[in-house]
Amino acid sequence: MNWIQEIAKLAYIKQVLAEADQRKLWPHHLPAVAATPAQIEAVEAALGTRLDRNYAELLLHADGWRGFYQTVDLFGTADLLGSEKMSAARELLGAVDDDVISATRNRRNDLLPIAATTQDRDLFVLTLPKAEAPGEVLWLAGELIDRFTNVGEFFLAMMDYNRLEVARFQKK
């Protein structure tokens, strides 16, 4: 995946969305500056496992993104190392019903929060290397909303969801 190109496309979509969002319902930010390889290594050491290659590549181009989708923030390395947002996301993951976790065919401790909001139940988790299907991204919000086969597919889908927001605002 050409992360530079895809991040630029999403930044443009987010700019159009910011202009269309006259009531300023959602936060609108550019992505954070790229993480360094040392930051990725620090996260992997803290987690005790390697990050999914696609997610690590994304972080090496954008180390997080506030307001990635509506009020959902895409986590960067500082979040992964332990931030208030990560603590809230882990708490949210802990509150997901066991039946919902079981339906994802994963164990709770095989799921790493990578994006979340503190204003709702939306939580995006990455399946870790020891999971049945490593590298998947799951969208949880009290139930399994969607499943993305990898971080690239997740990113492209979020671009589409942001485009839908643009269309919704432009109809008003």
Describe the structure.
The protein has helices at 3-20, 37-47, 53-59, 77-80, 84-95, 98-103, 151-171, and strands at residues 65-69, 72-74, 111-116, 123-127, 137-140, 144-148. It has 172 residues and is of the alpha+beta class. It has one domain (3-171): SMI1/KNR4-like (3-Layer(aba) Sandwich), CATH 3.40.1580. It has a six-stranded antiparallel beta sheet with strand order 1-2-3-4-5-6, with helices on both faces. Helix 1 (3-20) runs parallel beside helix 7. The longest helix is centred in the C-terminal third of the chain and has 21 residues, at 151-171. It is globular, with a radius of gyration of 16 Å.
Question: Percent of residues in helical segments?
Answer: 40-55%
Summed up, the domain count is 1
pLDDT averaged residue by residue: 94
Q: What would CATH call the architecture?
A: 3-Layer(aba) Sandwich
Q: What structural class do you assign from the helix and strand content?
A: alpha+beta
Total helical elements: 7
- How many DSSP-defined strands? 6
The strand line-up of the biggest sheet is 1-2-3-4-5-6
What is the H/E order?
A: HHHEEHHHEEEEH
Shape type: globular
CATH class: Alpha Beta
Strand percentage lies at 15-25%
Spatial separation of the terminal alpha carbons: 35 Å
Taking the sheet with the most strands, its summary is: 6 strands, antiparallel
Given as residue ranges, the uncertain stretches (5+ residues, pLDDT < 50) are none
- CATH topology name, in short, is SMI1/KNR4-like
Q: What is the alpha-carbon Rg in Å?
A: 16 Å
